[in-house]
Design brief:
- It is a single chain.
- By secondary structure, the protein is mainly alpha-helical.
- The protein has one domain: MFS general substrate transporter like domains (Growth Hormone, Chain: A), CATH 1.20.1250.20.
- It has helices at 4-12, 15-44, 50-81, 83-101, 107-121, 124-135, 141-153, 155-165, 168-182, 193-198, 216-227, 230-240, 243-249, 258-283, 286-305, 312-325, 329-338, 342-358, 360-370, 376-396.
- It is globular, with a radius of gyration of 20 Å.
- The N and C termini lie far apart (48 Å).
- The mean pLDDT is 85.
């Protein structure tokens, strides 16, 4: 008979968990690659000056809008067709889109491919987290999602290394090839037992996205699940993506590149996701762990705007701290999945992170609007404060789900 700890480790490092982690690794590589190659790719297409920011925001919003639409599509299909089917279909779409992106020669083509890639990128994380949450026992599922996130966000480091070594077009092609190679792993991965059990439920409503809005208590859980993740993407979508502009405004003593800022931020995210997952298991509480990391986010944002005249090394150190503080991403998605029954879980777990990512659109629009009346720093601080206040209020309204049994269904009227 195997020792208990050996059995537990074999469950945590099982093939479905590893595949979900690798899928998220490629997902993050492709997701952040645009932020890294934004300037050189737009320069190659003939843009300069203010157009680099304006067109950069436009392309980022196209990618995020695609993720918003894809989140709804894949979420519904995830509860109707299965977690695995959606996980690999989404990988296929964003891989092909990124391959094509390497050959884009105009801004409209670039924008269309970022939108299509966004649709594909929307499906992998939610389906992966749902699958892992359903196959692992409730006492260890936090470790499984921790592994998925920790391995996954390291894809940003590879993205920066590849973008620093190769031309931006080649970097997109490499991302597409990595995703297509990952599809081979589908052969040996089994579907969630909880999902398969739904097949025998006659008349069971599955993936009913509109049901999230027809009941106040269900809608409140859904909205709160979204709001707690917004500060993470304020940091990534504004402070990190536009780090060269902020560094100039803050009189940083040397050149700061977006690629390095992204790499250091995601380096912090790797350790943050690991630490937040471990802390939630140690405290046996998702909410306490998220509260701790959100407070660190407040401190990190404060330090970001107080570093006037510092060196690039110090700036990158703050980016690492912000990444670490935002490392509650995996717990945030896990909490969303744990809030709902099996027949609606993939819909929620897939749409929630993509609605948060999609919030980059109004966040950057408000940031751009604020710049018309305020300084760069003041505009960002105002938007960031609004995101944080909303997140703390949402967290207070969510139930603790650490010990929750997930083998149940949502009842619709």
């Amino acid at each position: 008979m195997k020792p208990q700890h050996t059995t537990t480790l074999s469950q945590i490092f099982s093939l479905p968990v590893i595949v979900a982690a690798l899928g998220y690794f490629v997902d993050i590589y492709d997701l952040v690659l645009f932020s890294i190659v934004r300037v050189p790719s737009l320069k190659a297409l003939g843009f300069s000056g203010q157009a680099l920011i304006d067109n950069g925001v436009f392309l980022l919003n196209m990618q995020m809008a695609g993720m918003l639409a894809g989140g709804i599509l894949w979420g519904i299909l995830g509860d109707r067709k299965g977690r695995l089917t959606i996980m690999f279909a989404s990988i296929c779409i964003y891989s092909l889109a990124n391959l094509a992106n390497g050959f884009a020669t105009s801004l409209p083509a670039y924008a269309a491919l970022r939108f299509i890639a966004g649709i594909g990128l929307a499906g992998e994380l939610g389906a992966g987290i749902t699958l892992v949450s359903e196959i692992l026992h409730k006492s260890i599922r936090g470790y499984g999602t921790m592994l998925v996130a920790s391995v996954g966000v390291s894809g940003a480091i590879l993205a920066n290394l590849v973008a620093s070594t190769f031309d931006w077009r080649t970097a997109f092609v490499i991302g597409g090839i990595l995703g297509l190679l990952l599809l081979i792993t589908r052969i040996r991965v089994a579907e969630s037992g909880m999902f398969r059990a739904m097949g025998g439920k006659v008349g069971m409503s599955r993936g009913n996205f509109l049901a999230l809005f027809t009941d106040w208590q269900r809608f409140r859980r859904y909205l709160n699940s979204i709001m707690i993740g917004i500060p993470i993407w304020f940091v990534v979508g504004v402070l990190i993506t536009f780090s060269p502009e902020f560094a100039l405004s803050l009189s940083i003593t040397g050149v700061v590149s977006a690629g390095n800022a992204v790499m250091f931020c995601y380096l912090g995210l790797i350790f943050g996701d690991f630490s937040s997952g471990f802390l939630s298991q140690l405290l046996q509480s998702r909410k306490k762990a998220i509260t701790f990391f959100m407070l660190m986010t407040v401190a990190g944002i404060g330090l970001y705007f107080l570093q006037t005249g510092q060196s690039p090394a110090f700036f990158y150190g703050v980016c690492t701290l912000l990444g670490f503080a935002g490392g509650y991403w995996a717990i945030f998605v896990t909490v969303a999945a744990e809030q709902f029954g099996t027949n609606l879980r993939a819909t929620v777990a897939t749409t929630v992170p993509n609605f948060v990512r999609g919030m980059v659109v109004p966040i950057t629009m408000l940031f751009q609007l604020g710049r018309s009346y305020l300084s760069l720093e003041s505009s960002a601080l105002l938007v960031g404060a609004a995101c944080l206040v909303a997140a703390f209020l949402a967290l207070a309204g969510l139930e603790e789900t650490f010990h929750k049994d997930l083998d149940y269904f949502e009842e619709f009227l």
